[in-house]
């Protein structure tokens, strides 16, 4: 029952055979095909697919398929009215993506339904080598050819032709259609996979072929693509022909389908296809054919991307690379990341450079929450002694005195140590003494700074849990804040010794003019710091460097010259002329005498820093001594650099030469061989 009902439905939906009563009135319509189709003769690769699609070939090589309406079209008697027919069909030629397709579909009028002896490929399943071109083949075909076969003079691989017993088309043209809407011819790609409508009309011995895409084109174009005069009765002497389709593949392959077909003897009675009922054409999805070239390209691309990303990562890693060792864990909070310092100083921008010297460079920066900072970059070659040095630096960070420049932390990189301290907006004292861009300090300001530094140095020597030697007291290491308060800074060269330990067994460091004589023999001690502080006292009061090679010989050594002034009875005459005579003579005398006392070449004659603080604050009177007291006013032999010693200025702000030479083990601690020369 169900099957018969199905058959009935099929007949209603797929086939409407209008008239069979008279053979002359042959007329039929297929809006899609039915698998139970009885009126179709199929052979070769022709199949009717479940969705109603008539497949002539699938995409396999060397196939051909035929589909004929199994009753012939009878031309009728010669005497009857003129011979005509009209047909309209929809086809689709679908190639596999990325490959060429072939060979084509033909609408056929043939004396015989048996074309099994024909050949596929360029013969389109219509002829073989011996039947092609022979009038006895009795085949009229309209070919939609998608391969250009030179042997048949094909014009291109996308053409429509009329073949009269011969694959050499009697007329052909590239596939196109006339668009009535746009008033011009538009080309059409047969192998696009899109459904294509074909109308073939024969009337008054004229065969017209008209093409149009199915999409957006309901009406038949008003102008045919091909028009050819043909004498059908001459071709088919029996006055009858079978109607159908043929298609073939060769080494080039495509799926070739007929979607619907309507035929009528009479153009006016041709039933129009119901487009909405036509089956849909499957599109082969892009087979993920692993194209080796594409994969190679993708791999290369991926490698490039990875290389670039890796490069960026390595660049950033290297840019911000630091050296961290397990022992540093305890200093964690004092450790700054290089990245943060890099950002704080805007990449160590030259505009923010505060100074440059033999050790490295100092940059101004700004850290969030902390505020303005000064970052000193010290270069070092060796890791040796690093642990000790960092420990010292960190311990210095724990030193708390109102007149010490606060050390905030450090950072270590390969070949580099960075010390972070608070930025002192006033700059260094030597700038006020020797540079015209800063106003000269008044006498009371100078004394205040001297008291500040004395107090700070006293704290280092006695106030902390260890004796801390500064080792490099000089005007360029004394900083001022906005209120011109003095701060002792730059511990870069300071080292520690435990209370009571032998303080002398350390390398000699310092700056010319601030270095006590015994440095070379017994090394640094609190006494050598006092000497340097004495030189600083004289420098600030007189506005002159401790040693000035450009001065006349008698004035060259400040200590000697101040003592000379005293001997001549005018100690105050040594004072800085820029003070313009505004000073307290008693105070000036006290400070100069204290300076001379501190710079005595007899270490034991020098006061301690505790005593210095007492004297300078006038809590205690200076001991009695004269310019002739032994050790007073004696210039220490000045260290002259021999060519092998690099003489560099320790900061831009100060042109005071300092002697530095790289020791092979640790270039950070400036140690050197002292050479006695040019003694006076
Ligand atoms: C195509 O059709 C041929 C015969 O008609 C068949 O042998 C072959 O398996 C089909 N190929 C595919 C891919 O369906
Ligand atoms: C060509 O086809 C005809 C029938 O159509 C057949 O008799 C003949 O043998 C075929 N020739 C070749 C070479 O296949
Ligand atoms: C064929 O086309 C010509 C114009 O090229 C036209 O005059 C003629 O009427 C057409 N015949 C049919 C049957 O459509
Ligand atoms: C359109 O194509 C037809 C057939 O190839 C040709 O006869 C006609 O001149 C063309 N018309 C235009 C406007 O190109
Ligand atoms: C067609 O061919 C037949 C037989 O060859 C001939 O009798 C007839 O006159 C031809 N018709 C035309 C219109 O040429």
UniProtKB/TrEMBL annotation:
Kindly state which keywords UniProt assigns to this record, in alphabetical order: ATP-binding, Cell membrane, Glycoprotein, Kinase, Lectin, Membrane, Nucleotide-binding, Receptor, Serine/threonine-protein kinase, Signal, Transferase, Transmembrane, Transmembrane helix
Ranges for domain Protein kinase come to: 348-622
One GO term (biological process): defense response
Report the CDD domains cross-referenced here.
Answer: lectin_legume_LecRK_Arcelin_ConA (cd06899)
Its recorded reaction(s) are: L-threonyl-[protein] + ATP = O-phospho-L-threonyl-[protein] + ADP + H(+); L-seryl-[protein] + ATP = O-phospho-L-seryl-[protein] + ADP + H(+)
Q: Where in the cell is it found?
A: Cell membrane
GO terms under cellular component: plasma membrane
Pfam families given in the database record: Lectin_legB (PF00139), PK_Tyr_Ser-Thr (PF07714)
> What EC number(s) does its UniProt record assign?
2.7.11.1
**Transmembrane parts of this sequence:** 293-315
UniProt-listed PROSITE patterns: PROTEIN_KINASE_ATP, PROTEIN_KINASE_DOM, PROTEIN_KINASE_ST
Residues that coordinate or bind ATP:
376
Q: Which terms does the record give in the GO molecular function aspect?
A: ATP binding; carbohydrate binding; protein serine/threonine kinase activity
Q: What is this protein called?
A: non-specific serine/threonine protein kinase
Per the UniProt record, the source organism is Microthlaspi erraticum
């Amino acid at each position: 029952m169900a099957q018969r009902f199905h058959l009935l439905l099929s007949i209603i939906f797929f086939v409407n055979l209008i008239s069979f009563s008279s053979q002359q009135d042959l007329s039929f319509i297929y809006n899609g095909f039915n698998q139970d189709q009885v009126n179709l003769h199929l052979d070769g690769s022709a199949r009717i697919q479940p969705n109603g699609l008539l497949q002539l070939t699938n995409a396999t090589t060397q196939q051909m398929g035929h589909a004929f309406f199994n009753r012939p079209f009878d031309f009728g008697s010669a005497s009857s009215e003129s011979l005509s027919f009209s047909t309209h069909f929809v086809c689709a030629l679908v190639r596999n993506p990325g490959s060429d397709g072939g060979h084509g579909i033909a609408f056929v009028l043939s004396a015989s339904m048996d074309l099994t002896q024909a050949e596929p490929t360029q013969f389109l399943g219509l002829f073989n080598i011996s039947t092609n071109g022979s009038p006895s083949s009795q085949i009229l075909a309209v070919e939609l050819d998608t391969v250009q076969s030179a042997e048949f003079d094909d014009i291109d691989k996308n053409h429509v032709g009329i073949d009269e017993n011969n694959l050499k088309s009697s007329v052909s043209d590239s596939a196109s259609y006339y668009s009535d809407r746009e008033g011009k011819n538009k080309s059409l790609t047969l192998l696009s996979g899109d459904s294509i409508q074909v109308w073939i009309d024969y009337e008054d011995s004229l065969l017209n072929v008209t093409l149009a895409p199915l999409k957006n084109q309901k009406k038949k174009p008003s102008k045919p693509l091909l028009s050819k005069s043909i004498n059908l009765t001459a071709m088919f002497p029996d006055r009858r022909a079978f109607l159908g389709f043929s298609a073939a593949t060769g080494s080039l392959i495509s799926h070739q389908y007929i979607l619907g077909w309507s035929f009528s003897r009479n153009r006016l009675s041709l039933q129009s296809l119901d487009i909405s009922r036509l089956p849909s054409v499957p599109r082969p999805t892009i087979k993920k054919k692993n194209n080796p070239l594409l994969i190679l390209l993708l791999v290369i691309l991926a490698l490039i991307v990875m290389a670039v990303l890796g490069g960026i990562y390595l660049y950033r890693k290297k840019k911000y690379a630091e050296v961290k060792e397990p022992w540093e864990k305890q200093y964690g909070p004092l450790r700054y990341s290089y990245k943060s310092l890099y950002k704080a100083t805007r990449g160590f921008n030259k505009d923010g450079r505060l100074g440059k010297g033999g050790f490295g460079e100092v940059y101004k920066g700004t850290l969030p929450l902390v505020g303005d900072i000064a970052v000193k970059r010290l270069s070092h070659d060796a890791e040796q002694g690093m642990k000790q040095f960092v420990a010292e630096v960190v311990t210095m960070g724990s030193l708390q005195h109102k007149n010490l420049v606060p050390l905030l932390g450090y950072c270590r990189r390969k070949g580099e140590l960075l010390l972070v301290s608070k930025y002192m907006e006033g700059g260094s004292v030597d700038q006020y003494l020797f540079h015209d861009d800063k106003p000269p300090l008044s006498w009371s300001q100078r004394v205040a700074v001297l008291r500040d530094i004395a107090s700070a140095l006293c704290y280092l020597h006695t106030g902390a849990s260890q004796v801390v030697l500064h080792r490099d007291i000089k005007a360029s290491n004394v900083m001022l804040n906005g209120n011109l308060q003095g701060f002792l800074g730059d511990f870069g060269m300071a080292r520690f010794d435990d209370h009571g330990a032998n303080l002398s067994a350390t390398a000699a460091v310092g700056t010319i003019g601030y270095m006590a004589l015994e440095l070379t023999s017994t090394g640094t001690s609190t006494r050598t710091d006092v000497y340097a502080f004495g030189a600083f006292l004289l420098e600030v009061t007189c506005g002159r460097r401790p040693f000035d090679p450009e001065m006349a010989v008698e004035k060259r050594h400040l200590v000697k010259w101040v003592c000379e002034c005293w001997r001549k009875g005018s100690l105050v005459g040594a004072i800085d002329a820029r003070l313009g005579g505004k000073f307290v003579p008693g105070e000036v005398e006290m400070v100069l005498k204290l300076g001379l006392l501190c710079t005595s070449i007899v270490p034991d004659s020098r006061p301690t820093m505790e005593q210095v603080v007492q004297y300078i604050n006038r809590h205690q009177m200076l001991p009695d001594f004269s310019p002739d007291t032994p050790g007073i006013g004696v210039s220490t032999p000045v260290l002259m650099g021999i060519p092998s010693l690099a003489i560099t200025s320790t900061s831009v702000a100060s042109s005071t030469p300092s002697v530095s030479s790289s020791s092979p083990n640790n270039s950070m601690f400036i140690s050197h061989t002292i050479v006695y020369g040019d003694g006076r």
